[in-house]
Structure prediction request, 645 residues.
Amino acid sequence: MRELSYLKLLAREYPTIKAASSEIINLTAIQGLPKGTEYFFSDLHGEYEAFVHLLKSASGIIREKITETFSHIIPEKEEVELANLIYYPERVMNQLGMDGQADDDWQRVTIYRLVQICKVVSSKYTRSKVRKKMPKEFAYIIDELIHVDYNDDNKRVYYSEIIRSIIDIRVGDKFIIALCELIQNLTIDSLHIIGDIFDRGPRADIIMNELLQFHDVDIQWGNHDISWMGAATGNLACICNVLRIAISYNSFDVLEEGYGINLRPLSMFAARVYRDDPCTRFSPKILDENIYDAVDPGLAAKMHKAIAIIQFKVEGQIIKRRPEYDMDDRILMESIDFKQGTVMAEGKEYPMLDMFLPTVDPADPLKLNPEEEELLHTLQLSFQHNELLHKHVRFLYSHGSMYKCYNSNLLYHGCIPMKEDGSFDEIQVGSRSYSGKALMDYVDQMVQNAYFLPESSKEKQEAIDFMWYLWCGAKSPVFGKGKMTTFEHYFIESPAAHKEPMNPYYKLSVKEEYCDKILEEFGLSREGSHIINGHVPVKIKEGESPVKSGGKLFIIDGGLSKAYQSKTGIAGYTLIYNSNHLALAEHKPFDPNKESTPRVSVVENMKKRVMVADTDKGAELAVHIEDLKELVTAYREGILKEKVE
Prediction:
C-alpha cells in the first residue's frame, strides 16, 4: 500500500468511498477513448501570419472534416466558405454584416453546419472536457445542440427552437463565432513546437502571444530560441546576434513595436561611424515590409555592420575567457592583416571584401571603444528589463526543454552530437564527460542556470557564456555544425570559406541502426517509436523526403520561413498524430488572398487504434486509478475515516 501520508493527501480531494469510486469510473472510461490529436510544428521563424493560419485551420484537417461531413451535400465553394468562416469567424462575420449577407436563413444554415462539425471533432473527448472548452455564455446551449438525438421528433423540434431563439434575439453572430472557436480548440488536442520560434520572419512576438493562449503546448528549444533566451540573460554576444539577424532581415517591427527595444542609440552610432560607407555587404534582405517602423535600407545596412563588428569583438572575448570551448580558430578579427587587407581562415589567406573598420584597433582588434561599450550597456539594459520579452522567455522555460519523450516519440530540434564512427560525441566538463542523453540533460540544466541562478553566482556567468556556445559551438546539440561562418560570409568571397560542416549525426541518423541507437539511449523502444526533428530544411524540390530511416525519423523543417522557400519548394510541414495514423501536412506559401489548405498525406497507419490507455497520459491515469483503489481499501479497512457530511 502507498504511504499513509500520501493517501491522507489524496483523501483531501476524495473524502469518501463514493467520491474515490466515482473518479475511478471516470478515469477508467477516459482510458477507453481514442487518443487526442497531436500537432508537431518546427522552425516557425517569426512567420506569424502563416503559423496563425495553420493553427486556425489545424493544418488543413478542419477542411478535411468539412468534406467528410458534407461531401456531395454542399458544393466545394460552400465548403471553402465554411472553412474560412471557422478559421477567421470575426473577420468573415464583419464582412458579411457590411455586405448584408448574414441574414436569418444564412445564420440558421450556418449554425446547423457548424454544430455538425462540432459533433465530429468532439466525438473522441469526454463531455466534460468538451464543456470546459466551451465559452461560458453559450456552454449549455452548445452542449444541448451537440448531444441532441435527431431520431427523436420532439428533440428535433427542440433543436429548431433553440436555433430560432438564438437568431430572434440577435446573438446569432456571436454564437457562430463561439462555435468556430470551439471547433478550432477541439481539433488540436496538444501542440509540440520543435524549436526556432524566433528570427528571420517579421513577428515572433505575435507567435509567442498565440502560444501563451494555447491550452496544451510544449517547446523543444532551437538555436534561435536559445539565442533570444541568452539575450534576456544579458549575454552581450547573444544580444548582438539577435539584433544583427533582425536587422539583416529588415525585422525592425519585432524589435521596436513587438518588444519595445530602443534602436535609436544604435542607429545614431551607425550613421555617424559609417556615414560615408555604403556598407554594401550588409544590405538587409527585405522579405517583409515593416508596418510600424520603416527604416531606410541604407541606414539599416550601417546598423547591420555596426552591430556585426561589435558582435565579433564580444564573441572573441568569450572565446578567450572560455578556453574549454576550443574555438580560438574562430577569432578571425585577430587574423586580419590590416596592411595587406587579408585575413587568415583555416590556414588559408583570403582578401578581405571590406576593410573599412574604423572602430577596430589593429593592435587590439577585440577591444570595444568607449562608444561601443556605452551602446552595449544601453542595449543590455533594454533586454534585461524588458517585461514582454521576459514574459515570453519565462514561458519558453516553463513549457520548454532540450528534448521530450512523449507517446513513444523523441522530440528535439537539432541533433544528438555524434562522431564519424557512430558513437555519441561528448563535452568534457572538469573531470566529467557528457554524451547522448546525459549531454542533453546537462545542456538543459545549464540553460536553466543561466536564467534562474542568483546574479552573484559564478555558475550563472558560466551558464550565460554557455548560451552563446549553444548558438554556434561545434558540439552544441541545437547548432549541429562544426563551425559558424558568419564572418566569412560578410568578408570573404570564396564559397569554400562559407561551408559549415554538418555534425555526423545528419549523415548517420538516416540509417535505421543509428535511429535505434538514439531511441534506446533515451529509453524508447525500437518498435513503434519515432524521432521528430527540425532545424534542417527539407528540399522537397530536389526530391528529398521528410520521412527517413525507414519511417523512424521525421525532419519537419520544410521552410515555413520565406527565406528558405526558394530552396525547399514548399512552406514547411505539420506532422499530425491521431489515434489512427501519422500524417504529414505539406504547407503552401501563405497568401491571405489565396486558398492555401495544406496537402495532407498519411505516412504511417497504426497497427491498432491508439486509445488513451496506450499513451503516456494513460499510464499516468493507470497509476492514479491504482492510488484511488488503495484509498478506497484504506477507507473500507478503517485505516482512514471518510468525511461524511
Summary: The two ends are 27 Å apart (CA to CA). The CA atoms of residues 275 and 302 lie 8 Å apart. Residues 297-321 form the longest helix (25 residues).
